[in-house]
Every structure is written in C-alpha cells, then in structure tokens.
Design a protein that fits this description.
One of its GO terms (biological process) is translation. By secondary structure, the protein is mostly beta strands. It is 0% helix and 27% strand.
Amino acid sequence: MVKVVDFGAFVNFMGSRDGLVHISELQNKRVAKVTDVINEGDEVKVKVLAIDDRGK
C-alpha cells in the first residue's frame, strides 16, 4: 500500500505501476474509513479490473 486517502488507497504493482483501489472495492460490506481495513505499508493482493487509455 503506497498511500491511503479518504476515497481509497493507492497500491504499487509490477514495480513501476500505481493503481487506485476505491473504498467501495475494499470489502464486500460498507467501509466507513479506509484505515479500518488497510494502512500505508500493508502488503495486499489486488486484482486489476481496468486500465484506462492513459495506462492508469
């Protein structure tokens, strides 16, 4: 986990890519605060759902 923000968390994957995990994608139930689930520095598994035309 690279950075936690109010609306989600930014993760680094493949060494050079950063991506956003939106707060609504963190768990199957409602999450009040991102830090209730994850914190900066945590190591997590993620699944890439989409990449936009800018490679983000």
